[in-house]
Design a protein that fits this description.
Layout: H1 19-30, E1 41-44, H2 51-59, E2 64-69, H3 72-82, E3 89-93, H4 99-105, E4 114-120, H5 125-129, H6 155-161, H7 164-175, H8 180-191, H9 199-209, H10 212-215, H11 223-234, H12 236-250, E5 251-261, H13 264-277, E6 298-299, H14 309-314, E7 322-327
Parallel strand pairs: 1-2, 1-4, 2-3, 4-5
Antiparallel strand pairs: 5-7, 6-7
Helix pairs in contact: 1-2, 7-8, 7-11, 8-9, 12-13
């Protein structure tokens, strides 16, 4: 497969990141009761084009999958791709922090019912390639950036209505943009003449606002501002903070959660939640671990795993990925 001139999923505009590694991590949990996955339930919490789910359903003919996505276009594309699997897959339109409700809607308990969960965070190649969505700074398009088109707030709304303080805070906190205050000041000055309407309007301002030496390092000068606006529009970090505990609670004994993050803000949240989940609950200072106070989860990765050069050559999007995974132990029932 690695030598295939067209990587798996390329025809859908999105090559799944770390497909083999995700499959390797999830398969033991999905085959714990039957080698073909019979009786196991998998949640793809960020379905996208459905590449990871397609692979697992193909490899495990008894597996059932629940695919979640807030983007109706993604659900339409994934639905067509996964149609051959019939009723083995259920697709639900929701943010990934809607895991508990999605499980109940599909007829499963919100806790202790799932064998594997996958999060592939951030904006997908498929969304970036749809220029009319406004996610990309490489083509002029409306300043939208909504993953769910029914959301009330767009990137243009933020740029055209937020005061200097809140706007600078978004750029600083969600984009880690060190020129946040200056950019916010220039945005307000510019919108007094003409409101922001397109990505080109914003890119033009950023080239003018960011000093030339800074523009020559660290990638495209619009990268951090576009990230910040996208995160704010879609409430991505708040959603992730709620989604991870819900995913952990949903696991059966032996179940696993795999998360792929592409920016440091997401990865810090994943790292923090997983560190708490894998920590001993014995009070500090005691010489031995108290029975029943063992960690609720165990880590399956040493820190964050990165893509190797071969993976990056096949799929440049994987260059930024940080993968972490945990498992609920099998020897303490549903605790």
């Amino acid at each position: 497969m690695a030598d295939d001139p067209q990587p798996r999923g390329a025809e859908y505009g999105h090559i799944p990141v770390l497909l083999d590694r995700c499959t390797e991590l999830l398969a033991p949990a999905l085959t714990a009761r039957a080698a073909d996955g019979t009786g196991a339930l998998f949640i793809d919490a960020t379905l996208g084009a459905g590449g990871h789910t397609e692979r697992l359903l193909s490899d495990l003919p008894g597996l059932h999958a629940l695919g979640l996505d807030r983007d109706p276009s993604a659900l339409q594309i994934a639905g067509a791709r996964l149609a051959p699997f019939g009723n083995r897959v259920t697709l639900i339109r929701t943010r990934y922090d809607g895991i508990a409700d999605a499980l109940e809607e599909a007829g499963h308990p919100a806790e202790n019912s799932v064998d594997g969960v996958l999060f592939d965070l951030g904006v997908s190649s498929m969304q970036l390639d749809r220029t009319e969505r406004g996610f990309s700074y490489s083509a002029d398009a409306p300043l939208d950036m909504r993953m769910d088109p029914d959301l009330p707030l767009t990137a243009a709304d933020i740029l055209n209505t937020y005061d200097h303080g809140p706007l600078a805070a978004i750029l600083r906190e969600y984009g880690e943009e060190k020129f946040a205050s200056k950019i916010a000041k220039e945005v307000i000055r510019r919108r007094e003449r003409t409101p922001f309407a397109t990505t080109g309007d914003l890119v033009e301002l950023l080239y003018a606002a960011i000093p030339a030496p800074a523009r020559r390092t660290g990638g495209h000068p619009a990268k951090r501002t576009f990230q910040a606006l996208r995160v704010a529009v879609n409430a991505e970090l708040d959603s992730l903070r709620a989604a991870l505990p819900a995913a952990l609670a949903a696991l059966r004994p032996g179940g696993r959660v795999v998360v792929m993050a592409y920016q440091s803000l997401e990865d810090r949240i994943v790292k923090s939640v997983f560190a708490a989940a894998t920590a001993s609950r014995t009070p500090p200072g005691l010489p031995v671990e108290l029975p029943g106070h063992e960690p609720e989860f165990v880590s399956l990765t040493r820190g964050a795993e990165r893509a190797d050069q071969r993976e990056i050559d096949r799929n440049p999007r994987s260059a930024a990925v940080r993968l972490r995974a945990v498992q609920r132990p099998t020897d303490r029932g549903g605790s």
